[in-house]
Amino acid sequence: MIRKFVFLLVVAGLVSCKSEKKENWIQLFNGENLQGWTPKIAGYPVGENYKNTFSVEEGILKVKYNEYDSFNNEFGHLFYEKPYSHYRLRAEYRFTGEQIKGSPTWGYKNNGFMLHGQSPESMTLDQYFPISLEMQLKGTNGEENAPNGNLCTPGTTVKIDGKYITEHCYEGNGPKHYQDDWVMAEIIVYGDSVIHHLINGDTVLTYYNPKISIEESPDYKSPNPDGRLSSGTISIQAESHPTEFRKIELLDLSK
Predict the structure, then answer these.
(1) Which residues of 90-106 are buried (b: 16+ CB within 10 A; e: fewer)?
(2) Alpha carbons 130 and 134: distance in angstroms, whole number
(3) pLDDT tens digits for the chain (255 residues)?
(4) Which of 82, 152, 213, 255 could pair with 134 as two cysteines, CB 3.0-4.6 Å apart?
(5) Interior angle at CA 186, CA 233 and CA 201, nearest 5
(6) Which residues, in sequence order, are bridge partners of residue 185?
(7) For 16, which DSSP code?
């Protein structure tokens, strides 16, 4: 009886230690400044934060257009300094204010995280978007069909339902957000195997085997000879609608 009791205590201790093991989330945004991040805005050199498109105020990372008179295709991206391959990316964001004058209609309440992207240094001066996979962050005014958490593929393609898609943007089954409330976006990435998009904890889209689209990106040299995208940069978009982020964190799954 004593041996059985001791055995149960050992098992309980092991279970307790396992459950108490903490996940080592890395805070990509430090809440104070843009340290670790590099802007690249179409028409401007790497590192130039044109008209302070990206800023940090009161602990919030903001995409804003206060200093713009109008939008003239200054599509921007803010790149994190380190590329990743296997990870969970989690962020809290919301849309604010009004879309800037001169913006494309599709830019309304539209932002995104770019995954497995090229480096900002490899982009051309006037390039709008990095070759990458985008988890689209989307809101709606109620008049458009705009599910959240879709996929867009600038210069890339992925497998869905067993075949490579030809659509530039592919809608998932995400919810529609009519208000400017804080939303939790999460991406789970397993190299060039499988990627999941989640909104507020629910999986809204899954796809497989990302690779470079040779037709769209004939001059881009993939890290892999066969065009597979197994790793790359992470960046935040600036597509003409003000957006705020109060948390951006990453769990490295390669360790």
Answers:
(1) bbebbbeeebbeebeee
(2) 10
(3) 555 544 444 445 544 444 456 889 999 999 999 999 999 999 999 999 999 999 999 999 999 999 999 999 999 999 999 999 999 999 999 999 999 999 999 999 999 999 999 999 999 999 999 999 999 999 988 767 789 999 999 999 999 999 999 999 999 999 999 989 999 999 999 999 999 999 999 999 999 999 998 665 556 666 677 889 999 999 999 999 999 999 999 999 998
(4) 152
(5) 170
(6) 91, 199
(7) H
Whether 131 and 156 have beta carbons less than 8 Å apart is answered as yes
CB 111 within 8 A of CB 95: yes
What is the rounded distance in angstroms from the CA atom of residue 84 to the CA atom of residue 114? 12
The predicted model scores a pTM of 0.89
Q: How far apart are CA 214 and CA 208, in angstroms?
A: 17
Nearest to residue 156, comparing CAs of 199, 203, 114, 197? 114
d(CA 189, CA 122): 23
Residue 178, φ and ψ in degrees, nearest 5:
-95, -25
Euclidean distance between the first and the last CA atom of the chain, given in angstroms as a whole number: 41
Reference 72, options 32, 102, 50; nearest CA is: 102
Q: Is 218 left (phi over 0), alpha (psi -120 to 50) or beta?
A: alpha
Domains located in the chain, CATH noted: 26-252 (2.60.120.560)
Spatial CA neighbour of 207 closest among 251, 254, 171, 154: 171
